[in-house]
Every structure is written in structure tokens, then in C-alpha cells.
Amino acid sequence: MNRITLAGLIAVPALAALSVQRPRESSTCQSDIVSSTVVSTFCGHREGDTEILDLLILWRATPGWFHNTATGRNGSSGSSVFGATKGIVSQSTDYGDATIAFEANFDTRTATVAHSTITLEGINTIVVDDVRGDWRITSTRRTEPGLPLVGDWNLALATLSRDFVRDLRCEIPMPVPPPIRQVRVVTVCEKLKQRQQR
């Protein structure tokens, strides 16, 4: 009769645990001013030592459209559903008298933007123009999704994607903000210029 050692009994479940893959993290989203004309919404999740881009929405309008107006209205609202899913995110953000809003379902791989539902199979980037008027989706494409885990993800995208830099329209200067207090924003365009001057 074979003898089973205590070490053997411990080793078997330990090896089984190592073979089980961890579930994918849920996606989270954040929006940032990245140029004089663009606010970027970045949705991603972590895989090991890499940040994976799930959805990038570039909201564009006239220079400085995101500055607070005399109303001082600024803020955001939204909801996220996680758990055993990749995530369902619904967000609405006010920039002065303009509002950006979207819903992304990373389980069904769909996003609803500007009253249009887009399938995210082979697509992870959406460009929306005329944000202060009648929203128009003017471009969709795939952007290389693997990014450094830490740092400015929008800046990392700018170093990897010529299309992203083109969409920022860095040649358009930032206008002087209205005479109510504004938070100083260092845009991706400014960071790229600083790198070139080194």
C-alpha cells in the first residue's frame, strides 16, 4: 500500500490553485483635458504589469470649450457595475455649459455615445466632434491597447499613436480662460512640447 505524505497532500491543492487564472479586472474610466480642443475619456483595466485600454473617447469642440462659464457649473455623475463582470460604466460630466455623456458595457462590447451604439469589436477609440452643438461621431479606430501601468496614460498614447496626436490639434493654442478661477491644467500638448525642448 502506497503511503501519502503530508507534504504531498499540501502540494496537490497548491498546484491546482496556481493553475487557476485570475478573473479579468473590471474597467474604470476617467476624463481629462488633454489639449485646447479635446477632453479625453480613458477607460481601462490592469493586466499584470500593463494597463489595457478598453475605450478612448475624444470629445472635441472649439478651443477652451471646457472652461467654466459665468455660471460656474462643473461636475460629474455616473454609475459603475462590477462584480463578476468586466464592467458597465455610465458617466455624465459637465464642463461649463457643455455636457459629455456615454455608457459602455464591456461585457457585451458596446458603447453608446451621441445617441449611437457602437460595437467595440476591433474598435477602442471614438472621436466625437461639435460637443457644444449636435454631437457627431467623426472617427472610430483601434489604438494599440497595452500601456505602462503608471504615469499619464494620455501622454503614453501620444508617444505611441500618431493618430492620437493628430486628433489633439496641438497647433491650436489654449485661449485665455474666463475671469473666474480656473484650475491650471498642463495639457498633453504642453508635455510633448516640453519633451521636445529637452
Outline the structure in words.
The chain is α+β, with helices and mostly antiparallel strands. It has one domain. 20% of the residues lie in helices and 37% in strands. The chain contains four helices and eleven strands, in the order H-E-E-E-E-E-E-E-E-E-E-E-H-H-H. The strands form two sheets. Strands 1, 2, 3, 9, 10 and 11 form a six-stranded mixed sheet that branches. Helix 2 (153-160) crosses helix 3. The radius of gyration is 21 Å and the shape is globular. The N and C termini lie far apart (74 Å).
C-alpha geometry: globular
Average pLDDT value? 82
Low-confidence stretches: 1-21, 71-75
Query: Helix/strand/pairing class, anyone?
Result: alpha+beta
Number of alpha- plus pi-helical segments: 4
Q: Which range best describes the helical content: under 10%, 10-25%, 25-40%, 40-55%, 55-70% or over 70%?
A: 10-25%
User: What number of structural domains do the residues give?
Assistant: 1
Number of strands: 11
Tell me the radius of gyration. 21 Å
What's the helix-strand series?
HEEEEEEEEEEEHHH
Outline of this structure?
The chain has 4 helices and 11 strands. By secondary structure, it is of the alpha+beta class.
Any descriptors?
198 residues, 11 strands, 37% strand, disordered N terminus
Which helices and strands appear, and what pairs or packs with what?
Blueprint: H1 6-19, E1 28-33, E2 38-47, E3 50-60, E4 74-81, E5 88-95, E6 98-105, E7 110-113, E8 116-119, E9 125-129, E10 136-141, E11 146-148, H2 153-160, H3 162-168, H4 188-197
Helix pairs in contact: 2-3
